[in-house]
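Section 3.1: Structural characterization of target chains.
Under the original work plan, the team committed to producing a structural model for every single-chain target entering the pipeline before any wet-lab resources were allocated. The record below documents one such target. The sequence was received from the expression subgroup and is listed exactly as submitted; it comprises 383 residues.
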Amino acid sequence: MGMRQRKIRVRRYSDSNRPHLKFVVNYREAGKRKRSFFEKEAHAKSFVTLKNAELHRNGVEGAEFPTSLRVMAQNAVELLKPFGKTIMDAAQYYAAHLKASAKSCTAVQLVKEIVAAKKADGASLRHVSDLRIRLGNFADKFGGAPVATITSAQIDDWLRSLSVAPITRNQYRRLLILAFNFAIQRGYAPSNPATSAAKAKVVSKTPGILTVAQAARLLESATPDMQPYIAIGLFAGLRRAEIERLDWSEIDFDEALIKVAAEKSKTAQKRFVRMHPNLREWLLPVRKHRGVITQKDFNKHFIQAREAAGITKWPDNALRHSFASYHLAHFKNAAATALELGHHDSRITFAHYRELVKPKEAQRFWNIRPAITSNIVQLGAAR
């Protein structure tokens, strides 16, 4: 049964200390007794009419709800209306924020936990190292700040302050999104501020590749210990890190396949790469049953080979990019090229390497063979 509503009335008032006040209205607000005084009866009656209307419309509890809170609630409703949210939505969101802030950890602690978690999950050494270095820079900046209090604007400003290329800045952003998702899972943050940080605009550049003549000269100029590395990069397209981890035992000459183990791949997925005939011819003379492909003092010998080949300007990732471009031009199959490269999507391969190489040049590239089985001097004549 609801609380009985008592009608509010105007009563006469007399006080020698305040002779100008003639009427009083007694009512309740926020559970407390209130009194309002008036000089004129008409003003008192108007006030009573308003209060009784509130009492009738909202009941005793509504009438006793403080005016200040009603005004605050109405203002909040107007603020939230453009976003389609209610006062309860706002209260729940802010309560979650306060709860997360109370439980939150520092940026330094977050990085330690996510690195440890990824190691335990079996992430590659390269990925764990990337997390430790890049997120370590983030932790150095925000130090002891609770992650729940770090805003999108702060992350945005920090990313823009980095003296790095656009693609590297976006890599930082990607890892921050990963870190804050981890923080949400552990209750350290109510939302992910990194997702709202702006991406840097990356202008696509044509990947640099070696000409057929440069590729031939590089192989000719390399020592026998260096030739396997260069030949595999040019004619199998393995990444540098994949070649450095490759063992001779993973090259199957009978099946003409190179095995890239999951733990040695950037994508952490095993794949087999076809060994083309000319690659087989480069590898057979120096073939071993086991042992690493990459020799000691690699950088020194590689630079010597480049200088001897007359290649003064080395394009970034030139061996792999050359393979992809010549493979796509010669075999005209983006899906096959993507499979060899270890790409998840052939559209990426097609977009990056289409029409960089003419078919005749591609044919010459796949005919680069050791001098013992083919006339490399003939290739060099077109230099």
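The chain has 17 helices and six strands.
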